[in-house]
Amino acid sequence: MKILLKTFLVILSLFLMWAAYIYFTFPDTEKIIKNQKGKYHETTTPDQSTYARLVKEDKKAKRTILLGKATHSVMHDNMFPFSTHEFNLNETERILEVINDSANFNWGEIGTPYYDKIIFFYDEDENEIGYLDISLDGEIKVFPDLALTKWGLLSDKGFQELVLAIRTE
Predict the structure, then answer these.
(1) Domain 28-166 falls in which CATH fold?
(2) φ, ψ (nearest 5 deg) of residue 141
(3) pLDDT tens across 105-122, in order?
(4) Strand-pair partners of 81
């Protein structure tokens, strides 16, 4: 009985340490959105009838998803958040180029995705300025968001390019 209790307490302690680590170190997406409010326009979710107009507005205003603003990024694995990988400026720009290209997206969504990885983008002052949730099923959620992402469903080509851009081996 004592061994069972000790085992339970060890497992509980490990779980609490893991939860505390995540709570205190994992960037908060809601905080990023709140801190960046007003720096980006509120995106209307496009559909096929409004897409051309919204993209035209974004291009006219020279809006991109963080191109030229992020100096580096850090990728976390959602299942094991201790596992991180930092991308330098060139690697970060490559990731952003993939998600800023509307040809890398299809119309639609896969349903309710589970996001396997999340990339946080930082400026030169180490401020969190955006994020990219990635489902290995091919859907993304990005902030700031533009019409270019067509609801966030990557095409096969786009998914392949993103996987190559975030490859850490």
Answers:
(1) Dna Ligase; domain 1 (3.30.1490)
(2) -135, 130
(3) 988 766 788 899 999 999
(4) none
